[in-house]
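Q: Sequence in, structure out?
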Amino acid sequence: MTHLGFGFRIPDLYQREGLARLDAAFSGFLGEADSALRERLLAARAHPAALTRKAESDLLIALAPHLEDFLARLFAIEPERDALAARHHALAPLYSVKRLFVQRRALHKVKPEEVRLLDADAAASRLEALFGEAFSELAFAQHVTEWQKDEAANAEALDLAARYAAWAASTPEGREKHRAGVLFKAPAKLDYLRLVPLHTETVQGAARHTLGSGHLRRREGFKLTDPGTDLVGALDQANYCIWCHEQGKDSCSTGLREKPPAEGFKTVFGVPLAGCPLEERISEFHLLKSRGAPIGALAMITVDNPMVAATGHRICNDCMKSCIYQKQDPVNIPQAETRTLKDVLELPWGFEIYSLLTRWNPLDLRRPLPRAPSGKRVLVVGLGPAGNTLAHHLLNDGHTVVGVDGLKIEPLPADISGVDALGKRVPLRPIRDVRELHEPLDERTMAGFGGVAEYGITVRWDKNFLKIIRLLLERRSEFAMFGGVRFGGTLTVEDAFARGFDHVALCAGAGRPTVLEIPNGFARGVRAASDFLMALQLTGAAKSSSIANLQVRLPAVVIGGGLTAIDTATESLAYYVVQVEKFLARYETLCAERGEAAVRAVWSGEEAEIADEFLRHAHSIRDERAAAAREGRAPRFAELLRSWGGVTIAYRRRLVDSPSYTLNHEEVEKALEEGIVFAEGLAPQSIEIDAYGHARAVKFSVAGGGEVEYAARTVLVAAGTQPNTVLAREEGVGLALDGKYFQACDENGMPVKPERASAKPKSADVLLHRRPDGRFMSFFGDL
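A: Exactly. Output:
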């Protein structure tokens, strides 16, 4: 596509002048459709502070469908947009019948004895006959909707439907049959101490938590482990939301608050319920989504959260924890948010639509398009989540931005990125199908962009979103980035200011991992969890073609209770299968070429012991894979791995006290589904070693008294990190420290104390250092 609607071309959408003309075109388009609304928009832009939050929400909700129509015409996708909207509308009966018929009628008015006596199979067959089609939840909802238009004439059918719905929603058999659906699911009451369905046993005084075999999720390798919900699931959540922005109670966005003192609530674990750190308009986008305005819903999200591709499902859940529903299942906002983005991305030119909304968005009353060039140049150090988000906002504020990162950043095709191998700007090729940007995660080459989102987050999250985030920045002519740059070494502070930068923003991520100061804490087989995750992901160790030097032996113990411990446990378990299968394949190849005796001749005694261990396990895995293929089922690797010792997370306190549980219990449940064991009340005392000096066990003191020893050939330590203040210790850099953190300052260079524990501080104290010439450094993110 070279020519767009309204006389525009793709290059126009990447220049401020073109966006200004586009904004004027939208104003004209809006005026033709609703001149009064256009006048409201212009008045709101002139005085945005004069609007109450509710008045602003009402205006944006009214504008969103017009913006959707404008974008559909701009990109000539009106038929595809209409088809997507029609899919939204077609599903509407599911959610009205779920709320008004299943939950309010079937579950409240059908008596328990009627449910017990129901022959569910016969009832389903009878309903199919009444439907005149195969039973499905949508068919059920559509026919109940029709029958309710004349209740008297359809009393018998509605009675049968109510009894079946009560059975499906309230019995174990019914819930199992409709496990994959949404219609017959009622919100569960929350027990904060039992958010995960655990099987617990006590071994030598320590509680060990697992999930039963019926809850295991058969993971294999490093493909994406959680694709997220579909449109049915997203609309289920959007309709479950009560759209409480209309009453000013959208706590998911603004935080849950006490009435008289207006102080924030905390969970039973002491976690503040401050809501979305960005105050994204969640209730508003749910309302638009439920009305079948998918592009309008995404536009509403991007007002406050333009980098939505890096948030949402399996990334953040502050919004969900602060949902108005505190005594029952909250709305799964991250799922709905990510699905809303995907629905737009999957349209023709969907990437271009999302990309445009991050630069020009009429729903953003304060900055609908990038501000005029400021003439200022900013160096952003680190291109992880903090760095790339900051870079985006600096660009939209009119500044020129250069980003640097310590990782090598692999180039993308010049026609996609707009930058050739020498850094020159070249014409962009618009992306019609977002699948062009996708790679299977188990085959994907690490591109280096994204910081911790590249090397720290596991395949629970679709890292193809990283390429999308990168292109939002890289395609902009006011942005440049360079990998392989160590700030403080390759490029010093003085170098940066001498090269004409007006400001340096540090977004360099967390510092070194905490080490355990216990006997044999640095023995072979002991490794920092963050180091393991980086080595696994940056070296490509999980690929069959890689010969990376990364060895894991079982049993393995992960020490810690945070999300890094959870990720380390799941990835080490998945990696073990890949590792031993690679070892067997290469061993067999070498033996065929050189003979087994020659291959083994160069091994030491320890190497032979490890090799035989790997070979035994690899043969068992091969046999199980063959048996699964014969029987037409998924391989049961979890049981094999557990029989070899598996992976155990050992935490010094209770599971319910662990950061992973209190902050995001879903991640704990997902890890246990893969066969992980969580042992609580264990404080490490020493690493026990074998005759070769390699770890063989970890000795723990038990919270209730006594000691216990866990066999461990691999010990991965996830005990947190230290603030990354290494730059303050670089020669010639005069950065002050405030304890273990950088010293923040105000605009006069005077020391201040930031609210480090708050996601929504009263004052955002991010300035770090004021130079004599008035130029500043600042710090963000994990710093």
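The mean pLDDT is 94.
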